Amino acid sequence: MTPKFGTSGLRGLVTDLTPALVQRHVRAFLAACDSGTGLFVGRDLRASSPRIAGDVMDAARATGCTVTDCGALPTPALALAAAQAGAGAVMVTGSHIPDDRNGLKFYTRSGEITKADEAAILAAKPGISTQDRVEKGELETHTAALPAYAARFIDAFGPQALSGRRIGLYAHSAVGRDVLGDILRGLGAEVIELGRSDTFIPVDTEAVDAQTRAQIRAWVGAHKLDALGSTDGDSDRPLLADETGEVVPGDVMGQITAEALGAETVVTPISSNSGITQKGFGRVELTRIGSPYVIAGMVAAGGAVLGYEANGGLLLGFEARGPMGPLPALMTRDCTLPIVAVLVAAGQGGVAARVAEEPAIVTRADRLQEIPTEKSAALVARLTEDAEARTQFLGALERKEKALDLTDGVRMQLEGGGTLHLRPSGNAPEMRVYAEGSDAAVAEALLAATLSYLAAELGERSN
After folding, report:
1. Given this model, what pLDDT does residue 314 score?
2. Residue 222 neighbours by CB under 8 Å, 6+ apart
3. The whole model's pTM is what?
């Protein structure tokens, strides 16, 4: 996986993320973007993250920048701390991808880098000097980020919000596992920790594999849980299962959270559950896939705006109110808010019953891994440009096209109901597949058939 830089950050094989490569990207970022009072640095729990975080801090200090080491913490907690200090930030994480890979996420003092920031960084890289300043920037430590992040939710929802609830916490190797447990307990829940791992486990909350789903159902049943929560590696994407052990799709969590917080405008990618358009919000904006597009849409909309992605990462663009107090805006993907908001909205009636109140549209997503990007991109390009190719593709699945949306990838609305959406991943060698149907069985059958066909078509294995 050749290192790739974009608005989602820098990602690549650990062996390719050399100190020199990290240094050049960090220096270009500091030269081209507004880092305000300095640079806050955080990391996830991958084996390679401490070394890369050290490279980031060394590179920044060599420019004279004041660096604040925040240690291991969730991406949204780092973003919140940096924003409160008026500083930029770099999070060392590969998110949900395997442990042999890692990356950097960049934040200006205004939040996640934008497409304009991306272009500025790329333009600055060729002229970056590798000469150190005579005096290095200061190195400071910050220990208040996690308590401040936890207080944000406990103050807004109150210490009795989850009283009487028995919540499982699938800890695995998520950097936010401990603070999420602290938050749930601080809201009054009994928390049962499960599956803690000292080695990194790449959990993708948007495409939860069959083995993990089975383990979650077993845990929920064995421990008589009211729900189970977890996150991806850097804890900006949520995972929530109901009292039956069924995983709640991230976009459905977004729908429920938007309603619970009184959002007037919702911004979400085209891959999200289309039921959002049936819920009566004043305005719904559908964007290309990726938080930069969601953020751009939120900024353009203004007002009481909330954004989320199909992976469940939720961005709050206004100061909302919880049952006990204000909930300040946080314009970066967050895992904790949708987990807490759905649990609170469900009340004693249970998460499954609350989810059942949503429009009867079910989405399922999965991926083919280790697919060269050029191969998946070529397939999607052919389907995009050639109606006959789409006819043949859908014919193999015994489906026909009703309508087409090319906002991001190729999204085909099907005759008789349902939707099929294909898109190459922007940050990993994967083909993403999204299927939508009137119920879970329909969506899952469409997804399985598509993955099987694509695996044979692309000559690769399915995960």
Report:
1. 96
2. none
3. 0.88
